[in-house]
Amino acid sequence: VAGEFALIERYFRALGTRRADVTLGVGDDAALLVPPAGHELVAAVDALVDGVHFPHGSPPASIGHRALAVNLSDLAAMGATPAWALLSLTMPSADEGWIAAFAGGFDALARVHEVSLVGGNTTRGPLTVSVQVMGFVPSGQALRRSGGRAGDAVCVTGTPGDAAGGLALEQGRAQASGPDADHLRTRFLYPLPRCATGAALRGIASACIDISDGLAADAGKLAAASGRGVRIDIRSLPLSSPLVAVFGTPRARELALGGGEDYELLFTVPRAHLAALERALPQAEGTWRRIGELTDSPGVFTVDGGVVTQFSHAGYDHFATG
Ligand SMILES: [Mg+2]
User: Fold this and answer.
1) For the segment 288-318, what is each residue's pLDDT rounded down to a tens digit?
2) What is the largest CA-CA distance in the chain?
3) Which of 214, 243, 275, 304 has the most neighbouring CB atoms within 10 Å?
4) Residue 229 Cα, ligand 1 centroid: separation in angstroms?
């Protein structure tokens, strides 16, 4: 076993050599890291279990990418800049080809965000990938879920629903082929955490959350943490053309609201900050869309034309799980 796993540590070590603020990385008992002065350390951890958080038999590069991406997305939601990651990998056997592809997927995304792997550990067992990420944010400037006020605009990045559509295709719950279907699959397999956007929202957004469980559910969490409710205008949802092409507009809207796995940011902006938002992140570049507002009364409501509906998980889980 020791020999097999020594092989893995060789791959881990290669991922850990890119930052000057790592005094000591992979290879000792623990890492030594130097956070910048005047900043708070921001930390998040998430585990992905085979067959639960990704379909069994997913490409190993995608598993490596997603294990890091879902954690970077949590840092993005705080407005933090990522720096370091730790990886705990439980796998049934040390298959070198699998590990090389997994490490390649992890590393390609780590490079984009200048993240160093500073600790790794391997155990034999059912495939589970646990990643911890750490980063930093100027002291006192982290975005939280709890800062929203009634009347704040609710905005979202990207095109939610694509990942849920891609997952449905991956799992065979929907059938389609061609470039649109491939695009949606890629959006599930290789989500792009919005770290630069999150950092740009510091001082502008009043609250922020990343979308893992579904736009409406996560909007509800932000609203509840802020002691408010939320109203979402169905017709304002930014739907991608591949999602509409494969699923049609009504189902695309349901996937956008209830699907999950998007790892986009949902954030609130006081009206007085909307001009600053437009300057920091010009809407013409398609990076975000205003989709609703926070309300005084609690709950999640959708508006379609004049029709207001209370969102409940029961109503949308059907579409999320098939
Ligand atoms: Mg999150």
Assistant:
1) 999 999 999 999 999 998 899 998 865 444 3
2) 66
3) 243
4) 19
